[in-house]
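Marked as duplicate of an earlier ticket. Keeping the data here for the record.
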Amino acid sequence: MKSSIIVINPNSNCYVTAGLSKALNPYRLVGGPKIECLTNSNGPFGIESELDSESVIPDIIDEITKRKDAGAFVIACYSDPGLEVCRSIFDAPIYGIAEAGILMALGQGNKFGVVAIAEPSIERHIKSIRRMGVIDRLSSERALNITVDETARGLKTFEMLVKVGNELLEDGADVIILGCAGMATHRSKLEKELGKPVVDPTQAAVSMALGNILIS
């Protein structure tokens, strides 16, 4: 069994990496694969536009190229930057958190809603959902309209998540997906507050990677 699942935060914000790493602690099993969370020091402080998303693809490819020892890779950005091209280059399993989060949500309810960081993100996400062929399972997507950094350490982020989460439930969602890796630390508390399943997509991707490695 290969020793590591490499979780790549494509932005340069170490607070985001620290938050998602903390959220992955339950998956760090005794005797199981090591889960390493890396920060792309060359990336933008937050991936908040199509340009940001495209710009980090070479860095992701470089990181995967360096880690031939790894059993799987997770691209921890909800835009899934470089997912298709990386899968075309490398043999190791590569997981995008948006794709993984949606797949997990589909197994927990009939309709899912997505919390986006900002309005411009929604168009990118909708394109991905259409490509997956599950647009009819999306109830709606609503934005917090804050920065990636604020999702990780903003003082009012949780309060905003509760507000938007309740709006998504009113729209018909019975599962909520957090549409940014920076929201990872809020998942458990938000799920208790809303009384409905809340999916952290980085956890979803790592759970898939871990399961595949353990049975291989």
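See parent ticket for discussion. The mean pLDDT is 96.
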